[in-house]
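This week, work through this protein record:
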Amino acid sequence: MTTKKLIGSIHLWLGLISGPLVFIIAITGCIYAFQEEIQNATQPYRFVAVEAAPLLPPSSLQQIAAQALPGKEVHSVTYMGSGKAARASYYSEKESYYYLAYINPYTGKVLQVRDENSGFFRFVLNGHYYLWLPPAVGQPVVACATLVFFTMVISGLFLWWPRNKQARKQRFSIKWSAKWRRLNYDLHQVFGFYVASVALIFAITGLVWGFQWFSKAYYATISGGQSMADYKEPPSIWKGNPVQGGPAVDRLWYRFRDSVTATGTLEVHIPHDTASSVAVNINPDATTYWKTDYRYFDQYSLQEMSVAHIWGRFPGTTRAQKLMRMNYDIHVGAILGLPGKIMACGVSLIIASLPITGFLIWWGRRKKQPKTTAGRVAAA
C-alpha cells in the first residue's frame, strides 16, 4: 500500500467515526458565534438610560443582588459600560449554579435575573463543549474528536495536494455543472482546502481547552520552552487591623472607575472568605477579553499582589502570554471584530458540511465497486 493510500484510509475511517461529532461541534459553534449580538438585540434589560446621578458602588449592588437570590453567594459585580446595566454574578461550582442579575447601576432596580445554566444558548454551548453528555464524559469525548479532526485536516491537505499542474487547476475550483457525484467531490475537496487554515486554528485553540498536556506543550512551544504557571489567586493576610474607610470592594472601585472607557468593563470580585483577595478586572474593550488587566489586592491593606500566571497585569504580559489570553477571542473570531465572527460562522458551517460530503463520497464509491465472486454468489 502506498503512502497516499494509507493516509487516504486513515482519513476515511477517522472521518466515518468522528463525522457526527464534528458535525455537532461545528454547527453549535456556528450558532454560538453571534450569541452576544443576538442577546443584546433580544434582551432589553441589558441596557439602561444614562443618568446624571452617580453609580452605586459594588457593596450596594451586592446587597441588592443578595436579596434577589437569597441563599446564593454573589461572586462578582461588573459595570458593563455606558448605557448598560450592571451585572451581579452568582456562581458556585460546588453547588452547580450560575445566575446573572441585571441591575440599574443608578437606581439599584433589579431588571432581570437569569439562570445561565438554562436557555437556548446554554443548550448550544453544552452541545459544543459536551455533546449534551455529562461534562465528565462529554468533555474528553469532544477533546478527542477535536484531536481526530486536527489529524483529518492535515491528512486532507496531503490528499488534496495535486500531482501535476492540470490537476492543481481543478483543485481550486468547483465544477457546478458536473453531475452530483463530481459536484459533491468538489465541494468536499475545494471547500475543505479553503477552510483548512482556519479549521486548524479552531482545532488548536479547542485543544488548548481540551487537554492539559496539549495546553502546556503549546505554551512551551510558543514561549520558547517556558512552563505555564497554574492559575491561583494570592491570599489576603489578616494582621489584626480593622478595615477602615468602607468596604474594600468599594474603595478599589472608586480607585479604578475613572480609568475605564465608556466601551470597557470593570469587574470587582467579592471576597468569599477571610483569606480571599479582591480581584479587579479592567477590560478596555468589551468585545474581546484578551486585553483585560487582572489585578489582585489584599482585602485588608488594599496592597496589590502580583501573580505568576498569565491572568495578571496586562502591561507585563509576554507575547506567549498574550497569545494564550487570545485563545477564546481567536476561537470565536472576535479577535477580528464582527467580520471575524462572520468568518468563523461561515467556516464552521463549511466544516459541518465536510462529514456529509465525505460520507457521500464513500457511499458513492462503495456502490460503484464491482462485487467480488463471493459477493455475487451470496447475492444469487
Remarks:
- Residues 372-380 have pLDDT under 50 and may be disordered.
- Residues 220 and 226 are 5 Å apart (CA to CA).
- Residues 3-35+123-202+334-373 form one domain.
- The longest helix spans residues 337-368.
